[in-house]
What we know:
By secondary structure, the protein is mostly helical.
Amino acid sequence: MTTLRTDPGGWVPTADDAPFHRLGGADGVRALVEAFYDAMALHEPALTKLHQCDETGNVTRVMRDRFALFLIGWLGGPDDYQQQHGHPRLRMRHARTPVDEAMRDAWLRAMGKAMDARKVSGEVRGYLDARFAEVAEFLRNTR
């Protein structure tokens, strides 16, 4: 079992100083998403299999791009995801997939490896570790 870090530390994002900006804008968030799915493919095969994969076994470009679009808005950037796809309805979209403690932890490990690879650190890392842990726990639907 992973100990979830839910204390974001002292930094509080603002519209002008959001995680989106600290990660390098849209390009930085897209790079984080690529690192996330690459880490997932290397280290979390059971989690990878829950996603739409291509013929090589990697999460598809469509899924990667959609998550990047969501994450850009969620991190304080342009909210193009909602304009294109509507409200994310995270729980509803994950309801058909069993998300237990092991899958929650696998997702958090993959994102942690992605943030390590992208050298996300300091206040923004503490903030993101906490926020990602909260959302991952919120999406658990199997106990």
